[in-house]
Amino acid sequence: MQNEQIALTEAIYYTLLSLYEPLHGYGIMQKVEKMSKGRVILAAGTLYGALNNLLKKGWIEALPKSASNRKKEYLITAQGKKIVEMELLRLQELINNGKKIVDAGSER
Amino acid sequence: MEKKIKKLFTVWKFAEEEQWLNEMAADGWELTKVSVPNYTFKKTAPNNYIYRLELLDPKLTKKEREDYIDFIKETGAEKIGEFSNWIYFRKKSGLGPFNLFSDLDSRIVHLERMFHRLLWGFISITAVLLFLITLTAIQPYSIILPIIAAVILVLILCLFGYGLTQINNRKKVLEEERKFRE
Predict the structure, then answer these.
(1) A75 Cβ under 8 Å from any chain B Cβ
(2) CATH number, domain at A24?
(3) What is the pLDDT of residues A56-73, one digit of tens each?
(4) How many CA atoms lie within 13 A of B86 on its CB side?
(5) Domain count, chain A
(6) Which domain holds residue A53?
(7) Whose C-alpha in A15, B20, B78, B90 is 20 to 30 A from the C-alpha of B157?
(8) Would residue A62 count as lying in a domain?
(9) What is the pLDDT of residues A9-52, one digit of tens each?
């Protein structure tokens, strides 16, 4: 697991981010759309597949249904948070290297 | 006003079927009932609904299937019909865009599902025909029957082969794109 270098897909990355607070499926779709200012719109079928895969990996958990809420809600796990943090480092590296080269090129 | 149309779409023409339903909706004909090959439309205001079709994974249990359909419904869509594992969804266009898939991976998986379905259909039909050919061939007085069966078999082979190639080509286009982007 430690050495496994993974680039998360945009759908997975944003789904994980949105689940730092409990949300149901439609809530995730709305939150991701808002976070990305309408750029990333998750389709229901794709999101469902992503949620199931995340559950299987143990990166998120399904919360027990309560009387007040009949829609299934999800929440990120400690393991999921670790994955997000690793992804942030990876993205930071991409940005830093990109900036270094592009900025140097524009100064020439 | 109601209108019934008989139309048959093969598995590999699913995108065309979806497009046709959306064009009908754009003209103010909303699909209300489907029992392949019969489509029932109702006259309404144009562009009322967006239609989407999905072939579900045949390995899903009944519970998983219901769970998935409920999930889609919670996003504001409704199920108006099904045909074997094909589900017909629609959503009021006023509620915003409606898609079932938003990345290449899930579209590729959907095409793979169609490919397998067609392949299994092909294998079962071929098995039945081969059985019939051997059955008729061992009867000495009949030469016509096995020939007819063989001709049908060849025709079916061509049709399915064509269909499988069509699905595979669409999949290849997506996979090529997948090398560069999500």
Answers:
(1) no
(2) 1.10.10.10
(3) 999 999 998 776 667 889
(4) 21
(5) 1
(6) 10-107
(7) B20
(8) yes
(9) 889 999 999 999 999 999 999 999 999 999 999 999 999 999 99
